[in-house]
């Protein structure tokens, strides 16, 4: 899918450009096992060489009048910063939520921050994990929505439906605004419907898919939040006022933010305000809410199959097959989704793609780590991945980027043996520092205060062998950490 290319509003000299606000709080459980809470779908390149977050940021940069505001959880902050850096997004304002409270508190926090500089600034609020194509159609819809926003409206894009979709909400279009041609009052919002109801809505020309994107002035949405959700308004205002600066991140104050009700912006404002407006969008949009949706968006072979990775098909039709490593072979089937990762396999009929989230719930309830965490776990210094796990031991591969280092730490239940296979490690072991080179190793007895650092210019790769009665990741006592982790 190609990137969207709306013309920059900054080129229009008579008004300021738009400020992108990107919400990156979802887990994308319907795209399990690729998307998990430890590394959700917005961080994956599902349609192009760029991740969904990067596509969203680049789309916003074309109309940006200032750095984008990205609202996310603290666990993902370094992933987001690195992915934005890779595509040249300079100086993003990355705002860290101490806890997820749904979209209304997140948008309120962004609006308070934007209003500190310019209360009348127009924000384009969008999820980090949607796919959009249709540059000229998006540009026209954005122009209309911006005009509506500058006239005090809270505008959203309504997407012309192409089928009876039960995974989306719908917006009923009312009368056209007298002040802004091409924008309409909202007659009603419709929750995700049954298939029969969705068919009725699509048959009417009054109903549009609810994209979940909003274009509005910061002061407008804050005024409506204060009117309809005063408790939320006060809690988020305090969390923003008392925020802490942590390197390149802005941490919302914990206690105040936790006091905000967990509510979506739709329920908090959009479905209650008299200022709601909808702009019909004739561009292609998808929230990629299921593997079937990704199949629809992906290029296909002559038999209707979409594939990714090391995949071989035989007498197979209309399937989505993905492998992120080992070879996956599929033969003699139709309308299936097959997804293979290093630690999980998911097979589903395309018609039941929305049900994947129920399987994730069951896996979580059964205590399976694979429901929420990948075998490869990203950290601000690099990543680690499990190779072998047995009784009282496990083996990991650890990669530390150049110039980075782990926390100074110790363990109560395990000893560690490190073997360097590429690069050079500087190891702190109690009161000494040891340089460990390629093909050399070092032993860290239980209780040893230690730290791993990469002083070189290439990634450091080592094999770690842990041994002990308990090998959980929570057996880490951090004494000193450059990344402000507890």
Automatic annotation (TrEMBL):
Domain Mannose-6-phosphate isomerase type II C-terminal, which positions?
368-481
- CDD domains associated with the record: cupin_PMI_typeII_C (cd02213), GDP-M1P_Guanylyltransferase (cd02509)
Q: Which reaction does it catalyse?
A: alpha-D-mannose 1-phosphate + GTP + H(+) = GDP-alpha-D-mannose + diphosphate
Q: Which residues form the signal peptide?
A: none
Residue ranges of every copy of the MannoseP isomerase/GMP-like beta-helix domain listed in the record: 316-363
User: Keyword set for this entry?
Assistant: GTP-binding, Isomerase, Nucleotide-binding, Nucleotidyltransferase, Transferase
For this protein, the Enzyme Commission number is 2.7.7.13
GO biological process annotations for this chain's record? GDP-mannose biosynthetic process; polysaccharide biosynthetic process
* Nucleotidyl transferase domain: residues covered: 20-301
The Gene Ontology terms for molecular function here are: GTP binding; isomerase activity; mannose-1-phosphate guanylyltransferase (GTP) activity
Q: Which InterPro entries match?
A: GMPP_N, Man1P_GuaTrfase/Man6P_Isoase, Man6P_isomerase-2_C, ManC/GMP-like_b-helix, Mannose-6P_isomerase_type2, NTP_transferase_dom, Nucleotide-diphossugar_trans, RmlC-like_jellyroll
> Would you identify the family this protein belongs to, as annotated?
Belongs to the mannose-6-phosphate isomerase type 2 family.
> Can you name this protein?
mannose-1-phosphate guanylyltransferase
